[in-house]
Amino acid sequence: MTRTDAKNNPLEEIALPQRSEAVTVLSPSGKQIPARVAERGPNSISVLITFIADVLEPDQLEGLLLEFPCARGLARVGGDVVLEDRDLLRFEDLYSIEVLQQREFVRVKANRPVLVYVGRDRMPIQSYAVDLSGGGLLLAGPDVLEIDEEIEFQLTLSSGSPPMEGVGTVVRSDVQGRRAIAFTVLSDANRRRLVRFIFNVQRAERRREVDARERHGR
């Protein structure tokens, strides 16, 4: 897709990330630069590069993209890039490059704590997720959960952040007593957090695979 063609793709339903949310700046070479949103306008966004070692020069701005979670998956947008300060970039006249749909997400293994509320009395039961995807999770029990039962849950992605709250339905169980939960209610903010977590896990796995191949090659 050429730059001219890409500019014809409006942002449409893509919600831009909020101030202080984490984003990734992608260079044409494939380098991923961590950043955070400093300011956001109707069709512009300023981001602060997180690490000083990743600071860009004026001749490195051509072709930069922004990547961030959205309700539909992982969004990549382009725009006219201005260097406002040595570590501050402004993307103007934004246009959509692509959205990686949730159905394209692979399931990732993630042993994360989950608090489940079951029954009329909303009895809290502590469990954990065996794996996660963009549309649900595999829960290590409890055995009391029935197929088609609706549950409320709190999923902790990291120890330093508040848990994700949502509602899901038990869609199946396996011989090990694990329950597959399909999300039915999940806020856009929590979905973005989950998408970011999943992609970070995927990237870490790919990085380990590359490092292992390089060590084996030597």
Please name the defining characteristics of this protein.
218 residues; alpha+beta; Pnp Oxidase, Chain A; Thrombin, subunit H; 2 domains; 6-stranded antiparallel barrel; 6-stranded antiparallel beta barrel
Amino-to-carboxy terminus distance? 38 Å
Would you count the extended β strands for me? 12
Instruction: Note poorly predicted spans.
Output: 1-6
Sketch the major β-sheet: 6 strands, antiparallel, barrel
Q: What overall geometry do the principal axes of the alpha carbons give?
A: elongated
Question: What is the correct CATH architecture of the largest domain?
Answer: Roll
Give the topology string: H per helix, E per strand: HEEEEEEEEEEEEH
SSE-based structural type:
alpha+beta
The helical percent reads: 10-25%
Q: What is the CATH first-level class name of the largest domain?
A: Mainly Beta
> How much is the radius of gyration in Å?
20 Å
> What is the third-level CATH name, the topology of the largest domain?
Pnp Oxidase, Chain A
Q: State the oligomer.
A: single chain
Beta content comes to over 45%
Record the strand order, biggest sheet: 1-2-3-6-5-4
Gist of the model:
By secondary structure, the protein is an alpha+beta fold.
Can you offer a commentary on this structure?
The chain is of the alpha+beta class and 218 residues long. The protein folds into 2 domains: 3-101, Pnp Oxidase, Chain A (Roll), CATH 2.30.110; 108-191, predicted glycosyltransferase like domains (Thrombin, subunit H). The protein is built from 2 helices and 12 strands, in the order αββββββββββββα. The chain has helices at 3-6, 188-217; strands spanning 22-26, 32-40, 44-49, 65-70, 73-85, 88-101, 108-118, 123-133, 136-139, 150-155, 164-173, 179-185. The strands form 2 sheets. A 6-stranded antiparallel β-barrel has the order 1-2-3-6-5-4. The protein has a 6-stranded antiparallel β-barrel with strand order 7-8-9-12-11-10. A hairpin with a 4-residue loop joins strand 7 (108-118) and strand 8 (123-133).
